[in-house]
Write a structure and sequence with these properties.
Aspartate Aminotransferase, domain 1; Aspartate Aminotransferase, domain 2; seven-stranded mixed β-sheet; 16 helices; binds D-serine
Length: 422
């Protein structure tokens, strides 16, 4: 990091500054394929690092427990209005610190400890906070889980309905962290209505695709929309809860004072900027390009003999099942990392291996699309993945080094938003 980019930090704490500089270089040089990550714009980065950080603002605009909120109220109200406009919802709360606290607030608003809640099983593509055992949501509530069909890797909506009618959960979560296919919010809504359940769409992964019209919206189908703001939506690390007016009080009360203290105003400002950016025509193009790139990458991987859960993708995410490749997910992920391709190892549905050493890797296209890579580059990306996985099987470190040099060369031609030009 050059002293002119962060002069005060470099002067005060050169050790920490050197870590930031190294991370900037890493993010610039590597091909980042983790589907839940992205690059925020320079404007989002600036807003997230402002003096708004200095202010305590417990409460909501116009109803605070601290004075001096003249400007903070305007920031938060702007973020709320932009969220409502972008997602077509009646109410938005932009204060949750991140996705897990946002989902906890939903439990606090609609359920009591011991109540039955239903979500997709974590190894099937769900999220910890959808009632999975090791999460507080699976300890304090009775979590029941649905999955995908063996063979197709698709949600079996008839099975979900049967389970919901048998269990009558207080809350049903749809959405997850490793779902490569379109979520049928209308089908979930009809199941939740029959079962008498509150329906929550956790769209953390696909919020940007929804905002850009590249995935159907849950608005009008579900009771609550929960989302983080830093994945496809390309904002700072934070979260939002959106709902109809009838649930507004319960949601707001659950976030504050139920779970949190003062909101992180600098993050709220970053969210407001990201929502503004996501409302521009360029973001519509971005969201569709993310999906086009993922489809092209999936096709190129299939052509190179990879087995993809559900056979491909409808969104930003691809789940590769390496069972037939003799390279477990963790070994492949670490080899790819050495080759300059950053992914995460992941369970695949019906995985016979353990979560910390599973059979799959999870990849996605939000970050590379933010850098301007397009469908014409996806065969090259698939080729690198194939060569790196092959090199991992043969423990061929020199082959990984060759891929890394090629990756660095291509990425240097596609500067990342928010990062210094090298
Ligand atoms: N950690 C997020 C992801 O990578 O999908 C979910 O919380």
């Amino acid at each position: 990091m050059s002293a002119s980019r962060h002069p005060a930090l470099s002067a005060t704490d050169p050790e920490l500054a050197s870590f930031v500089a190294a991370e900037e270089t890493l993010q610039a040089e590597t091909l980042r394929l983790i589907p839940s990550e992205n690059y925020v714009s320079a404007a989002v980065l600036e807003a997230s690092g402002t003096v708004l950080q200095n202010k305590y603002s417990e409460g909501y605009p116009g109803r605070r427990y601290y004075e001096g909120q003249q400007n903070i109220d305007r920031v938060e109200a702007l973020a709320v209005e932009r969220a409502k406009g972008l997602f077509g919802v009646e109410h938005a709360n932009v204060q949750p610190y991140s996705g897990s606290p946002a989902n906890l607030a939903v439990y606090l608003a609609f359920a009591k400890p011991g109540d039955t809640v239903m979500g997709m099983a974590l190894p099937m593509g769900g999220h910890l906070t959808h009632g999975w055992g090791v999460s507080a949501t699976g300890s304090w509530f009775r979590g029941v889980q649905y999955g995908v069909r063996p063979g197709t890797g698709l949600i079996d909506y008839d099975a979900v309905r049967d389970q919901a009618l048998a269990e009558r959960p207080k809350i049903i979560f749809c959405g997850g962290t490793a779902l490569p296919r379109t979520i049928d919010f209308a089908a979930f809504a009809s199941i939740a209505e029959e079962a008498g359940s509150v329906l929550v769409a956790d769209v953390a992964h696909i919020a940007g695709l929804i905002a850009g019209g590249a995935h159907p919206s849950p608005a009008g189908h579900v009771d609550v929309i929960s989302t983080t703001t830093h994945k496809t939506l390309r904002g700072p690390r934070g979260a939002m809860l959106m709902c109809r007016e009838e649930h507004a009080k319960a949601i707001d009360k659950a976030v504050f004072p139920g779970l949190q203290g003062g909101p992180h105003n600098q993050t709220t400002a970053g969210i407001a900027v990201a929502l503004h950016e996501a409302a521009q025509p360029a973001f519509v193009s971005y969201a569709h390009a993310v999906v086009a790139n993922a489809k092209a990458l999936a096709q190129a991987l299939l052509e190179r003999g990879f087995d993809l859960v559900s056979g491909g993708t409808d969104n930003h995410l691809i789940l590769i099942d390496l069972t037939g490749k003799d390279v477990p997910g963790k070994v492949a992920a670490k080899a790819l990392d050495r080759a300059g391709i950053v992914v995460n190892y992941n369970t695949v549905p019906f995985d016979t291996r353990k979560p910390f050493d599973p059979s799959g890797i999870r990849i996605g296209t939000p970050s590379l699309t933010s850098r301007g890579l397009s469908t014409e580059h996806m065969p090259q990306v698939a080729d690198w993945i194939a060569r790196a996985v092959d090199a991992a099987a043969k423990a061929d470190e020199s082959a990984l080094a060759v891929v890394r040099a090629e990756v660095t060369a291509l990425m240097s031609a596609f500067p990342a938003p928010g990062l210094p030009l090298s």
